[in-house]
Amino acid sequence: MRSRSALQFLNTASIVLLGFVALSGCGSRGRNTVTLAGSTAFQPFAEKLAERYLAAHPDASINVQGGGSAVGIQAAISGAAQIGMADLVQLPEEAKSLTATAVARDGIAIVVNPSNPVSGITSSQAHDIFAGRIRSWKDLGGLEAKIRIICREEGSGTRRSFDQLVLGGDRVSSDALFQNSNGTCREAVTSDPNSIGYVSIGLVNQKVKALLWNGIAATNANVGNGSYPLARPIYFLTRGEPAPHVRQFIDYVLSAEGQGILETEGLIPVK
Amino acid sequence: MRISPLTTQGIAKVLLALACAAAVVALIFVVGFVLAGGLRHVTWAFLTQPILDMGRAGGILPAIVGTLMMVFVAIGIAAPLGVASAIYLAEYTVESRITQGIRFGINCLAGVPSIIFGLFGFILFVVILGFGWSILSGGFSLAAMILPTIIRTAEEALRSVPRQYRDVAASLGATRWQVVTKSVLPYALPGILTGIILGIGRSIEETAVVIFTAGSAVQMPHSVFDSARTMAVHFYILAREGVSNENAYATAAVLICTILVINVGAYSLMHRMMRGRRVA
Amino acid sequence: MDRWVSRLLFLAACSSTFVLAAIALFIFKEGVPIMVKSGLGHFLLGTAWAPLEGQFGILPFIIGSLCVTFGALVLGVPLAVACAFYLAEFAPRRWVNVLKPAIELLAGIPSVVYGFLGVMWLAPLIRTQLGGPGLSILAASCVLAVMILPTIVGVSIDAIQAVPRTYKEGALALGATQWQAAWRVLWPAARPGILAGVILGMGRAVGETMAVIMISGNATRIPHSALDSVRTLTANIAIEMGYAVGAHREALFATGVVLFFFIMILNVVALRFARRAF
């Protein structure tokens, strides 16, 4: 009977399934996995570093997650990750118990749509725009159009750093739209001619225009020599003394090769 | 001027047909857009290479493997549990307070938003139980999510088995369990399989739960304790980062083709099994 | 032996209730304290969401969820019910075998694909033609309407086909056209079941997360028009969940509690309607 054999097939299939799951479980619990979690700004770079590291050390295991700097801090505290990645100007209270190692610096560029005639902004203008006091592009010499603010979510290191550097203690305008990664912010600015947002300098491409800050261009060179102030360090946060395999990866990132990779990809090395 | 009923019917038919056409057009648009944009980038290399450069280059093999493993785990837990529950509810009980309570639980679980499963899975499996971001956490959370679907469809399938099947087997001296396995279950198999396939489909397309419990590692997972991406998660990350529209479309094309195959497969499986039964 | 089997099966059946209870337990345990601490009224009706300053008013998100869901229903229900009637009563048999699976296929497409297409195509269209940021209630409603269409169509077709044949045959025997039979007899009879389907669709719309995050703009203000951006309850949880701690995390769980209750109420209502149908 066709149904009978189908049933038998199912029986064997489910046994095989569970066996597979069980066996594969026995596989790699013992492996030393380095889990990094946190800053979405640094995530692509972490993955690049992991790629190169694994090419040189094939039996290592590196696992990169995102989630935002606050996730990084929480994951490091709770142990869900061995290394928490955070791109913050100032580490918050809860991170005081963690060891912070700076591995790179990254600048924040304020971006607008390429069709926007405005090409530069002063620090007080930036403050007023993002706090919601300046509402029209006309006030900056642009067209008569409502300024649309694109912002990151609260747990983002980019957002917290930006708020600290540009807004001081003030709150972001309640009209702002929120996106949850650098990439989506950039894409939102790309498609909306009246929008303004902020992304890592390394992510600025043809589709958006980076504004001059008090007349200074947003480039890694200017961040490096200190003339462009919107920048934040990227920290690797570890709890207590990191395990040897974790230490090895951190040393790799701080080595000449690691820092060279970061520089090629668009960050500023710390060494 | 009175409009004749036949004219009203004619107008109504046209309007209703338009509504149906609108729905079909929406489907064609969505599927067509994705396939048109993505199918040409789906090459054998794309399907078998690792993810490189954050998805800008390379292929999606780790995502495919991740999806398969996660579905295995989810179905491996939910299918036996779900079918067993359905057998209990359909065969072993009469309606009572307890079964009403169980049914209420199933219906409510079916309605819980997926983000709550993500929240729950994150807190329970990733943090408290210490599995970390892993296929295991993702699979368990997905299993909880698809359990009600499997129970519902399986129970319906079991209930649709005609009484005679049970009565004849019982009158021949079979125990309840024998009645179920030898007489009822084979008949209800197509329906039960449909429920399982529905569950598989749901696991493949679910994103919120998976991101929060299985993470988004780009490497090939080596065991269920590793973090991995599913194709849906990979697509989401590519799409939102604007990293590579081509690869995003291609991943979506693979996803949609998989779902098409699953749906069509489910239908033809059902048809074939039911045709073989027409004689009964 | 049979008794052991029966016990095992009973345990299995309890598993789903157990999972539900576990979820409810977690969510309530974490979420209720903060609702009590900041006052239920404050929490549900407060308009300011600023976690870093200890403000946890979720009214904007409740309104966001309601607006988006309402929009989805307004756009989707007439279409879905019309579709269901067409497929159940008026379409040629052969077409139904193709169209019904085709519409069910819509349910299988991942929500992130819908969100992506909305961002790429629908939001810019809305922004250029109708104004506003494009990422708006309107965009979210359109996409959700397409997503809940298959659910409502499926349940409605079942409801229509479950009406006893005698009703329809009686009407036809009295000289009614097919349309008159459908409109005056089938529709009232199937209405409870169709309503149950609509409520199921509503539940799906309220619970949708990923697509909504991508196309609704996630603003934290109360919207003033259908072209404004909103944030829904689900989007709020998803965006902030990974890193929230302390009171912030509890507030997100409390949002989960609100969602939970909402869905529970919808389910109970749907069940009552469905039962009345038969």
Q: How many helical elements of chain A?
A: 9
Low-confidence stretches of chain C: none
Radius of gyration of chain A: 23 Å
C-alpha geometry of chain A:
elongated
Q: Tell me the major beta sheet of chain A.
A: 10 strands, mixed
The average pLDDT score of chain A comes to 83
- The portion of residues forming beta strands of chain A comes to 15-25%
Name the pair of protein chains with the most residues at their interface, and give those residue counts.
Answer: B-C, 79 and 84 residues
CATH class of chain C: Mainly Alpha
Structural class of chain A: alpha/beta
* Assembly state (oligomeric): heterotrimer
Describe this protein's structure.
The complex is a heterotrimer of chains A (271), B (280) and C (278). Chain A is α/β, with parallel strands linked by helices. Chain A has nine helices and twelve strands. In chain A, strands 1, 2, 3, 4, 6, 7, 8, 9, 11 and 12 form a ten-stranded mixed beta sheet that branches. Chain B is built from eleven helices and two strands. Chain B has helices at 5-38, 44-48, 61-92, 97-111, 114-128, 135-159, 163-171, 176-205, 208-214, 231-241, 245-275, and strands at residues 51-52, 57-58. A two-stranded antiparallel ribbon of chain B has the order 1-2. The longest helix of chain B has 34 residues, at 5-38. Chain C contains eleven helices and two strands; from the N terminus they run H-H-E-E-H-H-H-H-H-H-H-H-H. The longest helix of chain C is centred in the first third of the chain and has 36 residues, at 2-37. The model of chain C has no long low-confidence stretch (mean pLDDT 85). At the B-C interface, helix 1, helix 3, helix 4, helix 5 and helix 6 of B face helix 1, helix 3, helix 4, helix 5 and helix 6 of C.
Précis, in short:
The complex is a heterotrimer of chains A (271), B (280) and C (278). Chain A is an alpha/beta fold.
Output the keywords.
heterotrimer; A: 271 residues; alpha/beta; D-Maltodextrin-Binding Protein, domain 2; 2 domains; two-stranded parallel ribbon; 9 helices; B: 280 residues; mainly alpha
